[in-house]
Design a protein that fits this description.
Blueprint: E1 2-7, E2 11-12, E3 17-18, H1 20-34, E4 41-44, H2 48-61, E5 66-67, E6 78-79, E7 86-87, H3 94-97, H4 113-116, H5 120-137, E8 140-143, E9 146-149, E10 156-161, H6 163-174, H7 178-184, E11 192-201, E12 204-214, H8 216-220
């Protein structure tokens, strides 16, 4: 089974849509996604910038998206211990977050005081339940930290979503603490991240990441990838 996660094109956050560049990126996604083995179902965040990114692909494939609320951006306010103000639960400065031992383990990160200052645990559980429920429809039942495959459907699913949400899903599928993905990895607007199941023993499946943040479709077209969401020198 193949899962393809597409971060939305360069965003116009003010209007929850895309910039002019973002609209170009959405068009360049069409041949890239149609070059996959197949597209069986397209899932999408309910937010405008993700829906707008999907429009060109939906038109080209004559498909309708399945809207998943749990794919919306992982915007869950917490109290920043350095400022006392609300902020998203990721993109902390390295001088602080690297000193938080809970952030380094998938079973302890939610116990961090900063994560407990907001509704992070409940919202993260919605993401985990969302992807697990969907995979169960295709014959993959979560068991501990892997999946039991019972008459699995080997299909290709496309997910149009967001950087924070994408890494939240990947953390659950791959068993990696979300803060390490949020802080240590970057996926550019309109990039593709591809996971496939590996079943070395019949009935036991685990997802492996084959591609992270692929922007080759942009380079081929001479479109420079956007760095929106990547923080350089202050």
């Amino acid at each position: 089974m193949r899962l393809v996660f597409v971060r939305h094109g360069e965003p116009d956050y003010e209007h929850d849509s895309l910039t002019e560049k973002g609209w170009r990126e959405s068009q360049l996604l069409v041949p890239r996604l149609r070059g996959e083995d197949s597209i069986d179902t397209i899932y999408c965040s309910p937010l405008g910038r993700a829906l707008d990114t999907a429009k060109a692909t939906l038109a080209a494939t004559k498909m309708e998206p399945v809207i998943c609320p749990w794919l919306k951006e992982f915007f869950v306010p917490v109290i920043d211990p350095q400022t006392g103000e609300q902020r998203i639960p990721w993109d902390f400065l390295p001088g602080w977050w690297t000193e938080q031992p809970e952030f380094y383990h998938k079973d302890t990160w939610l116990q961090s005081p900063v994560m407990r200052s907001g509704n992070v645990a409940a919202e993260y559980q919605k993401v985990c339940d969302g992807i697990d429920s969907l995979l169960a429809e295709y014959g993959y039942e979560r068991q501990g930290n892997f999946y039991r495959s019972n008459d699995p459907k080997e299909e290709s699913l496309i997910f149009f979503c967001h950087l924070g949400a994408e890494f939240a899903v990947l953390s659950h599928l791959l068993g990696i603490a979300p803060p390490l993905l949020w802080q240590g990895f970057f996926v550019a607007p309109s990039s593709l991240t591809i996971l496939e199941t590996e079943e070395r023993k019949p009935g036991e499946a685990f997802f492996r990441c084959k591609t992270l943040g692929d922007t080759s479709h942009l380079y081929i077209a001479g479109e420079k990838p956007s760095e929106m969401g990547f923080f350089g020198q202050a």
